[in-house]
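[job 0412] stage=fold_complex status=start
inputs:
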Amino acid sequence: MKQVVLAHALTARPVATDFQLVEAPEPACPAGGVVVAVRHISLDPYVGSRLRGRHMGEAPPVPGRDTIPGAVVGTVVESRAAGIATGALVHAMEGGWAERVALPAGHFRVIAPGAEPLSAHVGVLGMPGLTAWAGIVQLARVGPGDVVLVDAAAGPVGGTVGQIARLKGAARVVGIAGGPEKCALVTGRYGFDACVDYKAEGWQAALDAALAGSPPTVHFENVSTAMATLALTRLAPYGRMVLCGLVDQYHADAPPPGLPAGLIVGKRAQLSGLVVYDFYDRWDAFLAEVQPLVASGQLAFAEDVAHGLAEAPALFERLMEGRHVGKALVTLD
Amino acid sequence: MKQVVLAHALTARPVATDFQLVEAPEPACPAGGVVVAVRHISLDPYVGSRLRGRHMGEAPPVPGRDTIPGAVVGTVVESRAAGIATGALVHAMEGGWAERVALPAGHFRVIAPGAEPLSAHVGVLGMPGLTAWAGIVQLARVGPGDVVLVDAAAGPVGGTVGQIARLKGAARVVGIAGGPEKCALVTGRYGFDACVDYKAEGWQAALDAALAGSPPTVHFENVSTAMATLALTRLAPYGRMVLCGLVDQYHADAPPPGLPAGLIVGKRAQLSGLVVYDFYDRWDAFLAEVQPLVASGQLAFAEDVAHGLAEAPALFERLMEGRHVGKALVTLD
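[job 0412] stage=fold_complex status=done
writing structure:
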């Protein structure tokens, strides 16, 4: 079978030529586990950080040997797990860029059949969706009357944050994204009230106009300390801020300036750090709430798809540069 | 009557010679208000900031004319307020360094008789106590099992934070203060489990020893962004942090480095900005809970007292330098 590995150890933000498609032995099925034929692979910004050994203390993959990590969905082709037959669909956080992966007991969950496409389980119904739900529902407890601001709004986290906020009764949902194509997705398919292009001249004034005199009561930070600081200046008194992705730090050589504590005090802001790992045990509750919304079309999503493992490195490079639109994934279907 | 005014406009942290004791006309009693013979005046760090026009957008007092602001307790000597007779005891946030002050309707509250000394109403039962209660009870919701860290622990806010935490069942209460005299107060009269002298060599190792392997689940920040950042590095996962006083910024010429957002995420920390003004309408609930604790001696406090208006500037200078011990106040009794 085929898999993708690192061509060499990384010293900077990964680019396509850092990866190599190689032949690998078929994985053996662990006791209590399964072997899965991979169908969709999630490409996520944090993996770029992990490839450099900068993510949660995890060791980077060994070049030439270890599969590039990534969440996957796939079909069970061999099972030593009680009650799980071949043909079952499963999701695993610790999958990889490979045609087949072995998943030990406890490291996957079975996907119940639903109307939505299977690929949604690496996006709006996968870790990105869980992240959005954890932040906006569990931490920020968004509700009627809230004005919600979220950046990286075209992505699967930001886009889901805004849409869930709207479904929970938010009065106004404003996104920040990079470029007109992403902004069109955010206000079009995702239905935000407004989206501001942070790459455009005068965008901070445009943000104020988009907020229409209603300072955000909730901000979901998905990009950087600088963006969080800007959001703090706009935040309503007693506003809630979820700090989640700080993508700009994944490959920075020095830590960025911090958040201004005086502004947190002055705004009486409530900040919450979010690590999605903490919410894995609530995946069922998340799916129970969000899967019907996806199936019915109330919660929209967008995908940026690479076809086949050979295309994965190029899409990953685009993801690292923010040039993807929607959820980046590799399909082997 | 006598009052204290600024001798000149301030351009740096105030010192004793910036103040002047002058004669002033007797204040006129406003319709619906009272005139009070001042008995105790609170000296607070934020006033130093306010004197320079750096506090909450409030204009600084005009040199030679405006009374130095400060919370007071005193006895009503003239009343145009319904139901308030001369002889009543009142507390006012907008008092001043003067023998008598006029208080408009709605700008004072009557103090119910209690066993504690009247001066406590500018300290543990005044704004500092309310600040502590708001942060540790209302925002951090401290309870059994919590490990609580607080700096400026010898002061009326920090000392009350730790003692209330203990009374609410905290498993361990650790203070940070400057110098052995303050630390002795914190572990002695206030009964903290430990207090670390941040002016001593190797104090961060001493802090780790004082925490005894139990990372703080709650931190109350009363001093600076740098101290809050240090506390973040020690904070338990999911720890709560109340950001309140940032005294070091009151007179700094440049904003300090900010709080590391990545650490907030990594710790899943919950940060809350606290401005005590927001809790003025809960003063009765605060007093109902805390006054009996003071009266019974369960909640201890310490005072650093200047006798007479002429001594106020020197004590204020010591307060600005952190050389006071306990609640700084001026008594005219």
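[job 0412] summary: The first helix of chain B runs from residue 45 to 50.
[job 0412] exit 0
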